[in-house]
Amino acid sequence: MDFSQTHFELFGLPQSYALDRDRLDTAYRELQNTVHPDRFAAQPEAEQRVAMQWATQVNEAYQTLKHAVNRGVYLLKLQGIDAFDAANTKMAPAFLMQQMEWREAIEDARAAKNAAALDALSDDLRAAHRRIEAQLAELIDTAHDFAAASEAVRQLRFMDKLIAEVGDVYEELES
Amino acid sequence: MALLQIAEPGMTTAPHQHRLAVGIDLGTTNSLVATVRSGLAVVLDDESGHSLLPSVVRYCASGDVEVGYAAQAAQNSDPHNAIASVKRFMGRGIADIDDIASLPYRFVDAPGMVQLKTAAGVKSPVEVSAEILKVLRQRAEAALGGELVGAVITVPAYFDDAQRQATKDAAQLAGLNVLRLLNEPTAAAIAYGLDNASEGVYAVYDLGGGTFDISILKLSRGVFEVLSTNGDSALGGDDFDQRIFCWIVEQGRFAPLSAGDMRMLLTKARDAKEALTEHTDVRVTAVLSTGEMMDATLTQAAFNAMTAGLVNKTLAPTRKALRDAGLAVDEVKGVVMVGGSTRMPCIRHAVAGLFKQTPLTNLDPDKVVALGAAMQADVLAGNRAGDDWLLLDVIPLSLGLETMGGLTEKVIPRNTTIPTARAQEFTTFKDGQTAMSVHVLQGERELASDCRSLARFELRGIPPMVAGAARIRVTFQVDADGLLSVAAREQSSGVEASVQVKPSYGLADDDITRMLKDAFTHAKDDMYTRALNEQIVDAQGLIAATRAAMTEDAALLDEAEIVAIEASIAALENLMAGTDHKAIKRGIEALNAATTEFAQRRMDQNVRRAMAGQKLETFG
Lengths: 175, 620
Hints:
The structure holds 2 protein chains of 2 kinds. Chain A is mainly alpha-helical. Chain A has helices at residues 7-11, 21-35, 45-66, 68-78, 93-111, 115-143, 146-174. The relative contact order of chain A is 0.11. By secondary structure, chain B is of the alpha+beta class. In chain B, strands 1, 2, 3, 4, 11 and 12 form a 6-stranded mixed sheet that branches. In chain B, strands 18-13-14-15-19 form a 5-stranded mixed sheet, with helices on both faces. In chain B, strands 21-20-23-24 form a 4-stranded antiparallel sheet, with no helix packed on it.
């Protein structure tokens, strides 16, 4: 296993935030088909161990590239930047305001047990998530503005948390 | 993919010999064994033509053990010693069993896993399960006419690490080589998916005797990718029986029941439930040993009303699994029903309502898991020739550690594809701290005390430093069986300490050895001969595989490396001429170690070839 290889190189993909998801999925399946421990279950232990290490690495790489936040964090890390560095927590006030409004809207929907409001909110959050992803692709792939990209990654993680909170409220309403 | 079939030949001297492998569905209520014969998965029957083996084990004072129908028949007359639904106690402590008061067994509290007092002594649920597995192993060996190379054992997808480890221990105790622990819904998906050559997203709703699982899978070009799973490992048909049981007791205004009467009424309850699958009402009559009687009619409507809460308890995890997969109901192409309990009309109705489509029930819900497991066993044993499918499964519950203040720090989130590994760094909080306690947890809750405790261990020998200076890296590795191992290492000063743990709910290796010894002193089988034979067969397989690999990929080795591997082979062959099975085992380990680097190079080569083909496809 070549640990100096990037996750992008592993899957034969260009190093960019914009992602051809079909190509990633196809390459992932092809690699797992090759290295998965199930392919070596009847083989000597040495081969089984190597298979587990490889399959673990391929899963890790796939999870990193597939996930919007993780892919951003990873690309910035390749640039030597830690997006969640404690000294680097700048966040646009407008975004923070919007956050608070969303959070209040979730709380209102919860209190009113209003599933329709939750559905609408969920759509809004996902749309906002997609917008930030598009910005991030622009910032990393074209503008190479990694400071702004770090902030966008942090925003995306906020969005993930909000979406998870909506899921928790759904669960509460269902129980 | 044909390019990649480098691994197949060589394990046996006759490469095309069919290797006997089975799939076992170790169920709460019934267990089955299946195999692939002439390309077709079939369930293996016993001599009387029964395919189901009731998962009931009876321990007699004489030391005899009955398994299956005989044990089931003795449940009413011998309730303490005829143990049913033991799967519910696997990897569980006494506090985990909600309805302990209404069970006729004599439970013994033990660290980790509860035990049961029987006429033949105190038995662990692992030992009881092993008795069921032994019977299935014997059934398979008799039907197939030879020793098994291995078995795929199914477990509920929602089983936690302790329950999985307990299942694997039981298989080992029954003398089975576990090729893989396979999640029951995934096994069912194989049986269904390959039958229907399907593509797209499927939900598998699996309600068994004592467990409920929901898995969402994506099928694409021979790959079964589990997107999410959820469930309840203490919810099943038994709970529906329990509701009817309570109704019977209420109808009869019965006083506290004897263990025998309790067992008898539970059987009545189950019969009534089964009758309601076909009929709109059922007459229930019972006469207790005290002479008390009841006679009443249970309607399907009344049954549905008393079990509506249970049905809902399956729908909440189902919605959650969909959300975790990021899917809406209308993106699910089909819903597969698995487990005997999905015969209940109320279940079919509720599932159809949620998914807005009629669920698929064309395969026998009692057999589909065993059939899928047999198909996977056939693949893992290396009997298939390149048209294999691939399973990518997930862990059902997050894995983490206890941190300061009794909180849970998640290290691997639920629904992560396995195998997987994650590391987390921790530090000391006191000056001069030389030891650190690591508490491994599984579950979704924030408080450590609300999660399942899997293991505790101490990392000692940390060099004294100021608080916060030590860097302790804790690594979690989950293998393809979904089993966890944890290692911790202090690395700031170059001083290293590491420890490997097995979850505390599983049995220690010493326990297994002791139980194997116990089992074999009573049997004709001589444990020593068996162990020696096993090691010799393993060694032969390893040498053949190594030679085949060296012939195929000689270019990957230099002269000195070839000499070194040949020396290890010669040393092992020398040991095989003797009778010391432990020495042969060490020889096998030595040869495995000597070929690790070679195995890595071969894998690198496979990956290069696969990805080269990939690029041609993409750009070509």
